[in-house]
TrEMBL record:
InterPro entries: MoaB/Mog-like_dom_sf, MoaB/Mog_dom, MoeA-like, MoeA_C_domain_IV, MoeA_C_domain_IV_sf, MoeA_linker/N, MoeA_linker/N_sf. The keyword Magnesium applies. Pfam families: MoCF_biosynth, MoeA_C, MoeA_N. Residues 1-20 are annotated as: Disordered. It catalyses: adenylyl-molybdopterin + molybdate = Mo-molybdopterin + AMP + H(+). This is Molybdopterin molybdenumtransferase. The lineage of its organism: Bacteria, Bacillati, Actinomycetota, Actinomycetes, Kitasatosporales. Residues 193-329 form the MoaB/Mog domain.
């Protein structure tokens, strides 16, 4: 099959795919976003290049940890009961001849324990005296195995340390290095292009008549990176159908993320541009406040588009509902669960029929709702520790609300 024929077949497959979910419940929208993509291919990369990606296979130990019996303290390695005759020193990275009963060597933290040693006497617990022949004698109390990290204490060779699906954090990199790895099997990073729509947006300076600052351009990229994505670029697109259509059609990104244009206003061109590019809506509107006019679509070539509402807090809701679950699926990352229910310090009013996401902080009395929670506001979000998931009808003080963690940068 020619490339052109393959692309036509892909376009037919996309546009005749799964039925569109319109105004679907919030939990179903998150599940749909997660199910819309499969993990990207696996690559084996050096440790430094694996940071921020996702483990594609379990991380197993290539050696025992520690790989040999190690001193846990500065002091003396001793053999048998004391007193001991002192002879020599062992530093980290050095080896030592076996110790006979009654012998001791000075030893540094992390140094390999000499064969025959039965324990380590801490420096502050030992006393040295000079013998008539000029040698030093060491006295103190040492229990068998005291202050020794035995071989394999943390793990044995071949033991699974971490499961696949975990984000590669600095701690994961450190563990992988300690366990003997030079490279890791990780999923390719999903690529994202951010298209910020609207003639009214400013990227610098003070807002003026009819003009507002773009808040989402600075807000979203760190969250996308935290989800394992690689941002190919962020650019503004004027309120023009042709410009938007071409930006979507020619984007090389796995995910095209747009802000604004998801409703039915006079310059809301996203639905028309999506149709013109051969896209197929998978989720068109979600029963959640703020953010209900959000959009998830499949694009030709196996790409996806997530359309976020233009209001900042509504766009945050769309990011957490559709964009991040989709990116986690592409990254091969385990889905972040909604946190366990926590008690409310005050009532949280709800929408009559939709789920509501409300910024909250944790206090001694429970979750405290924050003011400034309107769709166009970010002041409450900036102080929030999480978003409370409020079911239709709301929750009274003392009732429990599920919690959605805010992404880390």
């Amino acid at each position: 099959m020619s490339r052109a024929a393959a692309e036509r077949a892909e376009e037919v497959r996309v546009t005749s795919g799964a039925p569109t979910l319109r105004g679907c419940p919030w939990p179903a929208a998150r599940r749909a976003a997660r199910a819309a993509a499969r993990p990207l291919p696996v690559e084996r990369v050096e440790l430094a290049a694996a940071a921020g990606r996702t483990l594609a296979e379990p991380l197993a130990a290539l050696t025992d940890l520690p790989a040999f019996d190690t001193s846990a303290m500065d002091g003396w390695a001793v053999a048998g009961p004391g007193p001991w005759r002192l002879s020599g020193r062992v530093l980290a990275g050095q080896s030592c001849a076996p110790l006979a009963d009654g012998a001791a060597v000075e030893i540094a933290t992390g140094a390999q324990l000499p064969p025959g040693a039965t324990g380590v006497l801490r420096r502050e617990h030992g006393a040295l005296t000079e013998l008539p022949d000029g040698a030093a004698q060491l006295r103190g109390e040492v229990a068998p195995g005291q202050d020794v990290r035995p071989r394999g204490q943390e793990c044995g060779r071949g033991e699974e340390l971490l499961p696949a699906g975990l984000a590669v954090t600095p701690a994961v990199l450190g563990l992988a290095a300690a366990a003997g790895h030079d490279r890791l099997a990780v999923h390719r990073r999903p690529t994202v292009e951010l298209l910020v729509l609207g003639d009214e947006l400013l990227v610098a300076g003070l807002p003026g008549p009819g003009r507002v600052r773009d808040a989402l351009g600075p807000l979203l990229p760190p969250w996308l990176a935290g989800a394992g994505a690689e941002l190919l670029g962020s650019r503004h697109v004027r309120d023009d159908f042709g410009l938007l259509r071409d930006a979507i059609r020619h984007s090389p990104a796995d995910l095209v993320l747009t802000t604004g244009g998801t409703a039915a206003g006079p310059v809301d061109y996203l639905h028309a541009a999506l149709e013109a590019t051969g896209g197929h809506p998978l989720v068109d509107g979600v029963a959640v406040r703020p953010g209900h006019p959000m959009l998830l679509a499949a694009l030709p070539g196996g790409r996806h588009l997530v359309g976020l509402p233009g209001n900042p807090l509504a766009a945050v809701a769309g990011t957490l509902t559709l964009a991040l679950p989709l990116l986690h699926a592409l990254s091969g990352r385990a889905a972040p669960a909604v946190g366990p229910a926590e008690p409310l310090a005050a009532a949280l009013p709800g929408h009559p029929v939709d789920t509501r996401l409300h910024p909250v902080r944790r206090t001694a009395a429970g979750l405290a709702p924050l003011p400034h929670d309107g769709p166009a506001m970010l002041r409450g979000l900036a102080r929030a520790e999480a978003l409370a998931v409020v079911p239709p009808g709301g929750l009274a003080a003392g009732e429990h609300a599920e919690v959605l963690a805010l992404p880390s940068a």
